[in-house]
């Protein structure tokens, strides 16, 4: 089934987005599905559902490393499948469910920010890496309670998403030190905590996040600095283990100027890496703090919950 150029363009925006985190892109994906429903020209329920599945399929394949995008779209498609109502009603129902999914995600992030901020003490210096709207909200909440916190943020890979972190936090009045990724090891000993977001928590508990997260976890572990991951339950993925995840690669030109190297040199630009669960102090979800030994059980419970809701 053909999809309108407008919807294709919206999907491409998500595919090519190098700034926003996984939660934000998942919410954008839900809104794209909503727009597709609102502007659908389908003449029957069957055509409408086929169209929604086609849009949903393109959305989930746009950013394969980001579990919340897959989860939010899959749950929306499951919610509208098998319902008995008129064409106009199912269109309105789809829009309503998409709005509900977006609101649920925003509420989850607000709760995570609250739980995470409770771990931050007055005078703490927190190192972060790779843009995360959840981490931004947590640091803002912590700053409201503890005025004397500071943040160290890295450049965060070829995408430079750390610049957005520094800009947003400085506008909020939080003192920020901006460093290159290669300086992580030098500055980690000055931090009290390391905090990052996540694009996926895999079935084996491994954390997929922006490239360089693994390095931060390693240097934090070596320095004895607690390493926390903030993520909503939407990011837990019981389908894939860490080694099975498509980590996505972007343009080599972000790493080196075209023509600067011999054609025989292969240039790699992965956007994500995998951090073993053993390097994580705790994962903070909207349901509270999970110790590493609790993560697998949590994933299994989430899977059982999702399965029962589809029965």
In short:
The protein has 311 residues and is an alpha/beta fold.
Please give the CATH class of the largest domain: Alpha Beta
CATH superfamily of the largest domain: Translation initiation factor eif-2b, domain 2
Q: Indicate how many domains the architecture comprises.
A: 2
Shape: globular
| Straight-line distance between termini | 29 Å
Describe this structure in words.
The chain is of the alpha/beta class and 311 residues long. 48% of the residues lie in helices and 12% in strands. The strands form 2 sheets. Strands 3-2-1-4-7-9-10 form a 7-stranded mixed sheet, sandwiched between helices. Strands 5-6-8 form a 3-stranded antiparallel sheet, with helices on one face. Helix 1 runs antiparallel to helix 2, helix 1 runs parallel beside helix 3 and helix 4 packs antiparallel against helix 5 (87-117). 43% of the residues are buried.
